[in-house]
Amino acid sequence: MFKTVEIKRSGATAASDPACFNRLHWDIPAIERAAAGDYIVFETRDAFDNQFDWTTSAEGVAECDLNRVHPMTGPVHIEGAERGDALAVTVVDIDPGPYGYTVIVPGFGFLRDVIPGPFIAHWRLDRLAAISEQIPGVRVPMCAFPGSIGVLPGKPEVAAALEREGALAEAGGFALMPDPQRALPAALFGPGAPWAAEGLRTVPPRENGGNMDVKAMQVGTTILFPVLHPGAGLWTGDIHFAQGDGEVCGSAVEMAARVTIKCELRKGAGKAIRFPQIEGGSQLKNTEPSRFHAVTGMPVKEAGYVPPHLAYLDSPKVASLTNLSEDLTLATRDALIRIIDWMVVNKNLTREQAYVVAAVAVDLRIGQIVDVPNVVVSAVLPLDIFKS
């Protein structure tokens, strides 16, 4: 007979909570056990582990400890799960906490060179929408999902990730290597535990899932994970009240939450899954805007960028455009900057406010990737979030 397994928050921070961890490693012990078909209720902490509240200022954001990011709840041992199986995880319900926030952290985010921050928007949450005094006139509907959810990596996956990410770091790429500082769990096992020395950081997603930040993983959808470790080691955290596809400023409407999931074990099916997959129905249709404004972006860059509301100060810029070929990143950046500029001009927002709105409500979409050299990315802004 199926049962409900609950994992509750305890302690003021993740460091004092035995049900929380912030590194990924096969040796992290399970905090609970469940059978396929059981309901599992995860009480989660927000992505920055309670470092922000209603009193936090922009200066407080700049001073936050990034080593405390992503306290995850779990892991849960799923009985009978073996390497090579697939774990089908259905999101049954997400009960939001009353407080949320979106932050622009200096040095982080897609436009960190253009809009560096710091900035914070505090959100008042219920099951309908989020509102913020820092972004007046905007009401963001609830579309909650786990920003991070996954299973434990196996020993081979940890070794492979350390090798490839280490090579990337040595080549000058941006990669977060193991760091024992603030590594969790620590309360019972101490800093000498293997996950402290070689545990993977939780910022990038990998084969085992993790920080995917995919809005499609909302209530009612099923996420398929390859089982990489005996018992799977299911976990979640970093729950988002709402987010646009892209999470462009580096944070969504972040919150603590109570997440209910249900698992199905598909024997042998994990061999065909390299990265997590998602199954759903009408969920995406339910989040489509009834009215929108969209801009298109192409792989062009300007020698000296000037926002349109200051364009009268600049000479014609057509000659200063540089074209790159089939560069989706540059096309995305172009679209994002243009939708931010549109909100500044047409909705009377500051660039920081517009950047936050883009992170929590704008969907970035690939239009085409074949019409060389100019691929197209669109930024779709739902207009119903504005009161006027």
UniProtKB/TrEMBL annotation:
Under the heading InterPro entries, the entry gives:
FmdA_AmdA (IPR004304)
Q: Which domain of life is it from?
A: Bacteria
Tell me, what's a Pfam family for it? FmdA_AmdA
SUPFAM superfamilies recorded:
Acetamidase/Formamidase-like
- What is the protein named? Acetamidase/formamidase family protein
